[in-house]
Amino acid sequence: MLVLLVVGGVIAVGFQRMLRPRSFGKLGTYRANAINDVLAQIPRHQGREVCGSCHEDILSLHQKDIHYNVNCEDCHGPGKLHVAYFMGTDDSITQQQAELPREYTLEGCLFCHRKLASRPRNFPQVDAVEHFKFLHVTDPKTRCIECHSPHEPLFLLTRVSDARIHPIIHECKECHARKPEGDFRKVKDHPVIFVCSDCHGKIAQDFSTRTHAFLRCTACHLFHQENPTAGRIFKNGNRQFCLLCHEKKPFKDPEGVPQIDSKAHLTELGLEDDKDPRICLTCHLGEIHDDALVEK
């Protein structure tokens, strides 16, 4: 038995030597020539610059808003056949093959935005059931894109890069199931955390008396983290952003969140030709903040 085991071991080692690629181990524990094989492949993804050469208007919106760092092909799929067909560089491709996916799927949105305990609390994420309940949406099959534009999700008035740098806001609930009693500063070796009221005490106190007091500050002043200590926070007054919650839609319960038909509302006020994107705040800022406390 011992002789058989030794002979079997020798045969196995021999076969392993014979079958191992010549370049294995040259650059590490893998086949080094695999790099050349990958380099020889024709790229399937084209990049947003190529997409923008034909879809300049969409790219300009995309690059301004919060999805600026999401590549077009992350949602629409590889653009190799699409570009080759419409650029006329490959006559063998049919129009059907060249069409990119544009159909909405709930999973397509929730792949990034599903609420998970493993994701940072300041990353936009939703529980679809809770979100619909909050907005009094009556049809559970309502599509995200009925309210949210994937190319311009926040309707920012200025580019993300123009938003002010802001330190990361940490909240007790990020670590604790409920807000602890007392001050964290009295806890030995407790990490330093900041909440909105630490710097904006008067605004936070005033906001607690306003109609929107049930919302977190970051429900409107969304935060986009850029590094472990800081990010961009948005002071967005675009009426399209307000209408994400308040626009009248057939799938919303009219007895829930206050809703308006924006066009009819402006016409009623004699503002049918109004082009001011901040028009909502002209009348309704008092529902959110005391005008005297808000930095102009």
What key attributes describe this structure?
296 residues; mainly alpha; 3 domains; three-stranded antiparallel beta sheet
Can you put this structure into words, describing what you see?
By secondary structure, this protein is mainly α. It folds into 3 domains: 2-39, no CATH class; 45-103, no CATH class; 105-296, no CATH class. Helix content is 34%, strand content 4%. It has 14 helices and 3 strands. It has helices at residues 2-19, 34-39, 48-52, 56-64, 72-76, 80-87, 95-98, 106-113, 128-134, 196-199, 201-207, 239-246, 262-268, 279-284; strands spanning 164-167, 223-225, 230-233. Strands 1-3-2 form a 3-stranded antiparallel sheet, with no helix packed on it. A hairpin with a 4-residue loop joins strand 2 and strand 3 (230-233). The protein is extended and about 90 Å long. The chain starts with a helix and ends in a 12-residue tail after the last helix. 10% of the residues are buried. The mean pLDDT is 88.
Topology:
Layout: H1 2-19, H2 34-39, H3 48-52, H4 56-64, H5 72-76, H6 80-87, H7 95-98, H8 106-113, H9 128-134, E1 164-167, H10 196-199, H11 201-207, E2 223-225, E3 230-233, H12 239-246, H13 262-268, H14 279-284
Antiparallel strand pairs: 1-3, 2-3
